[in-house]
């Protein structure tokens, strides 16, 4: 039953997508089907590395390199396959091991029939033999393996292979083949990275995925002059292949901690955080902390991708000067789970009973969507009543945090020794003073001027004293 609607709906969804697409009809082609090719048609990345060494080292260890071997994926696809009696096997694998699918080596989902090359995820001689696409979403690529490599240059020459220019490589629609996941049976959009970009100001301004993800600019295009291969001419721009998002969890498992560092840097450029607090507060008073979070650097929602699994949240901790905690929200408990966060920024999917599920293959509706759109600002408010006998001043520490998955989910899938790293995307600090402290127009205590003066006079006095002692000693 799932199976019969599956095929029909796939066609329906593909047709709808094609209709809704604009500007791509020029290279619209038939998607390559399951088993149409053989894995022997593809060339190992080690061959490409001989001339494209820098590009190779960029790509190595990234999530494209890991797309199939990623243990989080392998655990999830096992569950998905069991839940659907194997009906999602080809669907999931089409993006995570495209060579595995077009060569008919997967299913079976356990990988027992797979060649080594199919296990290398999204790789050179998959991406560069894409010769067209049937729109975006659910991987409608056409692949033509062989001597021709398609790419962004219209004047490229290599002794080893023929080169062919295809504009698609320079457009978001190339990435949108896979970075748009639609439920094959009910049409629910599971990963809307491409569409959230398409509806944003970035699309209007022609800032594409490659501008941010394939240049050092991170939030905008930055030219990177260099050579694309050995013996190649110098060009004004060649793109980086360390296509990194926010995943600092999986790459270190493959020894690629530098990829994780790049993900942290990207997360730290994605959002700004501003907090406002009262400058003074007295016991018994209700104190309100307002935090404004802006998606300032990402060309799509934050978080994006499998955002039903991702978690972004604000941690707020207020302490007095003796270190007593007065308020907290969003800190982790002993098991690594988030306690009392005001909002977890992600989306919650529901199954046909309306219950929340993170098994997106079982979902047919969106229950909640708290993600922050490109250039959007959201605010959250935290209030607490100030107890008696606090030691002033109070420190308000806030951190906007991100992690790839809830800890309980990873405990369940991978065992309790695997800790999901929490990344602070941005931090802000504020101080609340005793009401008797005079505050200046900048919100600083006036006494700070007078405290700096005594500090300085103490320094002068000490200096004078040591000079006197020095003179005294010499005598
Ligand atoms: C996810 C798909 C993907 C993978 C994997 C990938 N590439 Fe690319 N590659 C692209 C895209 C897209 C561009 C064009 C980017 C642009 O110009 O905006 C590109 C550009 C290139 C270029 C032109 C020079 C440049 O850097 O702009 C070369 C050469 C190249 N890739 C070789 C490789 C090799 C070798 C590998 C494997 C180590 C590889 N690519 C892996 C998608 C990919
Ligand atoms: C013998 C050296 C050599 C090998 C091996 C090699 N390339 Fe190239 N490749 C080059 C040179 C040189 C260029 C020209 C770069 C330029 O025009 O700036 C090039 C260009 C490219 C381009 C750009 C094409 C365009 O029109 O935009 C792509 C994509 C590419 N190679 C992919 C690959 C892939 C994938 C492999 C492995 C299957 C590979 N290359 C193996 C030397 C090589
Ligand atoms: C204006 C720059 C910009 C553009 C354009 C952009 N991104 Fe991003 N992307 C970011 C930043 C910054 C992050 C890190 C914050 C986050 O996770 O969203 C990111 C994260 C991601 C992630 C990881 C998300 C997660 O939480 O797992 C993916 C996947 C991604 N981008 C894909 C794309 C694709 C595909 C496109 C084009 C349709 C695109 N990006 C366009 C800046 C950009
Ligand atoms: C053949 C399908 C495919 C294509 C084409 C593709 N990707 Fe991906 N991409 C994937 C898969 C699958 C993963 C995730 C693997 C995982 O997490 O297990 C991924 C991961 C990523 C990540 C890392 C996400 C993170 O959380 O860190 C970024 C960023 C990204 N892709 C951007 C791009 C961009 C930009 C393009 C276009 C130049 C592109 N991708 C083209 C399939 C694809
Ligand atoms: C149309 C392409 C596509 C299909 C189909 C697809 N995925 Fe993915 N998957 C991706 C991309 C792209 C990412 C990376 C997005 C991000 O970083 O958030 C991803 C990420 C994931 C992740 C997160 C991995 C990590 O390390 O954080 C899991 C788990 C996953 N997919 C499982 C599945 C399962 C199970 C299925 C089938 C039910 C499936 N995917 C179908 C493209 C796809």
TrEMBL record:
Domain annotation Cytochrome c-552/4: ranges: 48-128
PROSITE patterns (UniProt xref): PROKAR_LIPOPROTEIN (PS51257)
InterPro entries per UniProt: Cyt_c-552/4, Multihaem_cyt_sf
Entry-linked Gene3D superfamilies: Flavocytochrome C3, Chain A (1.10.1130.10)
Family matches, as Pfam families: Cytochrome_C554
The UniProt record lists the keyword Iron: no
Transmembrane segments: 454-472
Key words of the record: Membrane, Transmembrane, Transmembrane helix
Keyword Transmembrane helix belongs to the record: yes
Name of the protein in its database record: Cytochrome c554 and c-prime
Organism of this sequence: Methanolobus profundi
Lineage of the species this protein comes from: Archaea, Methanobacteriati, Methanobacteriota, Stenosarchaea group, Methanomicrobia
